[in-house]
Recover the amino acids of this structure.
């Protein structure tokens, strides 16, 4: 049995042909730390939009990133286990993960960010730059940079749910409100399954919080 609860709170081109055209004219900030058209960026850059995430019906950031070129995802177990991200053969600790431009804290003794802890309902777009960006971001970006952007087009709430075999259930939600000049974003995810092997029951709960 696996139970997983994730909560993330925030204050605040080259890719597969199926979505490369959609992002060719978009603006990106991750490659050179200033806003510029994606088609003018020299570094290999991919942009995943909210529309892409919904079309893929992705349930986790791990699912999203596994679709992108040069990315390998390793998990220490089944559903709910800690994940590590490898870009172009570099070590996972050399992949810099940002939330709205702020580095995501590392998880556990592995000292690498765990993408599985980020609810997909929080994400509006992902900018992924593969290849060394150490001159801009330091040694953590030898493999590349993943910038997860959470800003929503307008305040409000969004909730999604799904069910499957073996008792699988997943619930995902996000809420954003603007108070004075402060933007408050909250997102959470709950996933439950009995697993495929009743002899290997597991239980896991996790909680993540961030203030930007």
């Amino acid at each position: 049995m696996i139970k997983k609860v994730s909560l993330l709170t925030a204050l605040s081109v080259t890719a597969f042909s199926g979505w490369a055209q959609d992002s060719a004219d978009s603006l990106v900030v991750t490659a050179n730390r200033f806003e510029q058209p994606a088609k003018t960026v020299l570094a290999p850059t991919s942009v995943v939009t909210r529309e892409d995430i919904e079309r893929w019906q992705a349930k986790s950031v791990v699912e999203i990133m596994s679709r992108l070129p040069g990315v390998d995802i390793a998990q220490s177990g089944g559903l709910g286990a800690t994940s590590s991200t490898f870009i172009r053969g570099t070590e996972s600790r050399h992949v810099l993960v940002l939330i709205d431009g702020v580095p995501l804290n590392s998880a556990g003794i592995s000292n690498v960010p765990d993408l599985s802890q980020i609810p997909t309902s929080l994400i509006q777009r992902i900018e992924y730059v593969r290849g060394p960006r150490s001159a801009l971001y330091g040694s953590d970006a030898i493999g590349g940079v993943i910038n997860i952007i959470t800003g929503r087009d307008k305040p409000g709430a969004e909730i999604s749910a799904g069910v499957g075999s073996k008792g699988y259930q997943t619930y995902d939600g996000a809420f954003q409100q603007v108070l004075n000049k402060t933007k408050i974003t909250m997102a959470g995810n709950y996933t439950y399954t009995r697993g495929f092997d009743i002899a290997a029951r597991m239980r896991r709960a996790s909680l993540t919080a961030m203030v930007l």
In short: Residues 1-24, 201-212 have pLDDT under 50 and may be disordered. The longest helix spans residues 17-23. The chain has four helices and 13 strands. Residues 13-149 form a domain with the Ferric Hydroxamate Uptake Protein; Chain A, domain 1 fold (CATH 2.170.130.10).
